[in-house]
Amino acid sequence: MNSLYVLPFWVEVLTAVLLVLSSLFALVGAVGLLGMKDFFQRMHPPALASTLGAWCVALASIVYFSAMKEAPVLHAWLIPILLAITVPVTTLLLARTGLFRKRMAGDGDVPPEVSEGGREGK
Amino acid sequence: MSPLLAHAILLSLSVFTVAMVLTLIRLFKGPSAQDRVLALDYLYILAMLMMLVLGIRYASDTYFEAALLIALFGFVGSFALAKFLLRGEVIE
Amino acid sequence: MKRLLPAPLLSLALWALWLLLNLSLSVGNLLLGALLGFLAPIMFAPLRPLPARIRKPGVAFTLFWVVGRDVITSNLQVAWGVLRARQKPPRSAFIKVPLDLHDAHGLAALSMICTVVPGTVWSELALDRSVLLLHVFDLDNEAQFIEHFKTTYERPLMEIFQ
């Protein structure tokens, strides 16, 4: 490990706190994914990890590398932006898939199609 | 790198690993295919977060680019699987 | 000029993004970023069927901060709901929200806001875009939730895009 860099103590404390916090959010997301009873309920906890968890890690990365290079290093900011663009697409498509498959299986839990006269999936 | 940060990184990596194991249990258990796709997508996101933590540990910029790649591949993989489950084929 | 720069804001954003990624203001990077910002909208022009029109950037700015604050609060609420799931199972339900926003870009922005705020998952949109099916993680009052959803997110988006 690199021992050439001696960073101010508050930077290390902040980075440490943010990293542990994000891993705790990811753990709560995994516990929720495992413990929920219904597919649609299971979709919510992972979104928690990919927003707050990713924000905390990106912030820790920005703080640490900026302190190391003594100039703002902002490229870790790209990760939450990329996640904010790609995660909605996957979530929407998975929700549609869940609805479609449950309707095809004749499961009564999900509401019927919303559009009048429309065909759900060809 | 002070011992506080080194221990915190070790702790956060261990907690991420525990989260990955729980997601694996859901991957094996999930009664339907879309549950498994959800678990796989979440595994990709956890791997990406672990890459960023490793980037802080080794103080290198390469891990950030690896994390970007993992995010992109995870997105494309989950999207293709979900589209396949919805339509029966990926590209019509 | 419209043919050369079909989306000037997008070109500017791409240029800024290139400089941010490479973290340098050298002439080579400036030129390369300008080239990227110039070429990308032209090459992707066949994929954009409708031009996006943004009015009232001030409303967009406040909406950005409101969404940021809501992300944090509802993340903590979902985390709390997950941890309390053994004693008090969350009451999830599907809700139908009647929509007034019909613009495609506004709906895309609404779906992004909906997903980035955990606790709501956008499930289905009617073919004539009049009704939206949402799945909510923990619901106590349906009418109040619909009211909150429409005033906080849909009305600013209607002002921005329509």
Automatic annotation (TrEMBL), chain A:
It holds the Pfam family PhaG_MnhG_YufB. Keywords: Membrane, Transmembrane, Transmembrane helix. One of its GO terms (molecular function) is sodium:proton antiporter activity. The chain crosses the membrane at residues 13-35, 47-67, 73-95. It comes from the Bacteria. InterPro entries: PhaG_MnhG_YufB. This is Multisubunit potassium/proton antiporter, PhaG subunit. The lineage of its organism: Bacteria, Pseudomonadati, Pseudomonadota, Gammaproteobacteria, Pseudomonadales.
Automatic annotation (TrEMBL), chain B:
It is found in: Cell membrane. This is Multisubunit potassium/proton antiporter, PhaF subunit. It comes from the Bacteria. Keywords: Antiport, Cell membrane, Ion transport, Membrane, Transmembrane, Transmembrane helix, Transport. PANTHER family: NA(+)/H(+) ANTIPORTER SUBUNIT F1, NA(+)_H(+) ANTIPORTER SUBUNIT F. It is a multi-pass membrane protein. The chain crosses the membrane at residues 6-28, 40-60, 66-86. Belongs to the CPA3 antiporters (TC 2.A.63) subunit F family. It comes from Pseudomonas abietaniphila. GO terms for molecular function: sodium:proton antiporter activity. Pfam families: MrpF_PhaF. InterPro entries: MrpF/PhaF-like. GO terms for cellular component: plasma membrane.
From TrEMBL, chain C:
One of its GO terms (molecular function) is monoatomic cation transmembrane transporter activity. It holds the Pfam family MNHE. It is found in: Cell membrane. The keyword NAD does not apply. It is a multi-pass membrane protein. The chain crosses the membrane at residues 26-47. InterPro entries: Cation_antiport_E (IPR002758). It comes from the Bacteria. GO terms for cellular component: plasma membrane. Keywords: Cell membrane, Membrane, Transmembrane, Transmembrane helix. Belongs to the CPA3 antiporters (TC 2.A.63) subunit E family. PANTHER family: NA(+)/H(+) ANTIPORTER SUBUNIT E1 (PTHR34584), NA(+)_H(+) ANTIPORTER SUBUNIT E1 (PTHR34584:SF1). This is Multisubunit potassium/proton antiporter, PhaE subunit. It comes from Pseudomonas abietaniphila.
